[in-house]
Amino acid sequence: MRIEVNNVSVKFKNRYALKDITFTINENKIYGLLGRNGAGKTTLLSLLASFREPSSGSISIEGEDPFENAKLMQHVNFVFNKDYKDETDNLKNTLENVNRYRPYFDFDYANHLIQRFKLPMDKPLKQFSKGMQSAVSVTIGLASRAPITIFDEAYNGMDAPTREIFYQELLEDQSEHPRIIIMSTHLVSEMDYLFDEVLIVNIGELVLQEEYESLVTKGASITGPAEDVDSFVQSMNQLNTKQLGNTKSVMIYGELSDAERKAAQAKGLEVGPISLQELFIHLTEGEE
Ligand SMILES: Nc1ncnc2c1ncn2[C@@H]1O[C@H](COP(=O)(O)OP(=O)(O)OP(=O)(O)O)[C@@H](O)[C@H]1O
């Protein structure tokens, strides 16, 4: 599947929620869509899921406009924090309904997920806790195996062990049934290992789209005796500093040259990767 977003803006009254966004997604990978609160993640994802139209610009999925395109939407699944507070149906009936309109739905896999999430089959969904309701949405989202599956902060309300089950299942099922998965989040440090590629939106603008592996080489952590670290990083763009006794660790933004790496080695300094969380904070801070 190929998603193309060209110069897309969305305006609410006279405020832009998205400003001139352009990108392409066309590989069966897990894409992380990162942004702070109000950055525009949900607005962007709801365009892809045909929930709204852009104010300007264009979107195409497999060459077609997704808006009100029922045929195309069979291939796109948007998983969000659905509130089941009025849902009197139980899980069994709900899954049977989903099975009718989701062409790739795998009932056996849904049952497997229900067991892992320990969800009751016969209780009305409105009696489920918040975390259990999220687990229902995630179960439907994963078992639908839509070629484009979008999780918009779908983990909300799940406790840490339940989120871990979600992440494990996501990785396993994505490798067995490759498809485009887009996940929006601000739980960056917890979820970074899931992402093949990362998109960062900040105040309605796309600030970055890059492979995870190459992104984390955009910076480095330098660790060693405080004085040596200080002199090594003094002319560099420093993001964060930690010190324990005389051992200091400084995160820097910017790729190190071979000469710089050798110089660090010669001084006995340890050069490590930077975390996506550090980069995320750096790229989205102080611009409000
Ligand atoms: N229906 C609407 N009417 C007016 N403004 C809106 C509407 N929906 C979203 N916005 C505004 O658009 C901006 C982007 O909102 P959006 O929900 O896309 O952010 P988000 O990145 O998903 O945030 P969060 O992480 O907090 O869920 C915000 O400033 C929000 O207030």
From TrEMBL:
Keyword ATP-binding on entry: yes
Pfam families documented for this protein: ABC_tran
Gene Ontology MF terms: ATP binding; ATP hydrolysis activity
Keyword Glycoprotein attributed: no
Keywords: ATP-binding, Nucleotide-binding, Transport
Domain of life: Bacteria
Domain (ABC transporter): residue spans on this chain: 3-228
SMART domains per UniProt: AAA
Protein name per the record: ABC-2 type transport system ATP-binding protein
Organism: Ureibacillus chungkukjangi
